[in-house]
Amino acid sequence: MLPLRRRSIGGLPDTTRHVLAGGVVIGALALTLVALLIPVDAFGGRSPAAAATVTGDDGAGTLSTPYGPLTAQDRDFVRRVRLAGLWELPAGRQAMQRGTRESVRTVGEHLVEGHTELDRRAIETGQALGLDLPNQPNEQQQGWLSELDRTQGDPYERLFVHLLRQAHGKVFALVGQVRAQTRNSMVRALATDANSTVLDHITVLEDTGLVDFEALDGGSQPGTGAATPASTTPILPTK
Known about the structure:
The chain is mainly alpha-helical.
């Protein structure tokens, strides 16, 4: 009887074929693992949808301009600078009139001076880049102004400082992010100006001695420990 010969496929012995098959399986598993890891690495631990929310994505993508690429984050930043002035300018004028402490009136002066110039720069930047900018405070900002209108005396000054310090603290991080990442020269220049202005405002607000840092960290009303109503919790203004 003749010895049985092991069958092969494509001219390859069975042992070689099994080794190749095992390699294919291992390779497929490795590619699957890489595919699962890519979204986490590419978006810093966030899904693409979450990343778009953080940057205020308007859906237009990155646009070409004579001043360099204009991203969704760039456009969102210019609009937020404009929005900040729309409520901080009237808040500053009010503090100049109603503040009983000289330090609070000084904050009002810095707000008016700083945002008058920064607002002009935001409008100039928006026009150069063809952006539609808001012309009045949004509903959230109007709520902050209404809270100030309903408050008098020492509680007014403490609320004023709390709202403005909390708002400036949050926007300061955004300014630094945009300044570091933008490739648009107009946006970069605006971010540079905004950085100086926001830092000046934070400084004079803290010079009042009225900043309750525990309230800033915990989202509570200054000096009370009670939760701050949603209408008075300053966050970055949205469109």
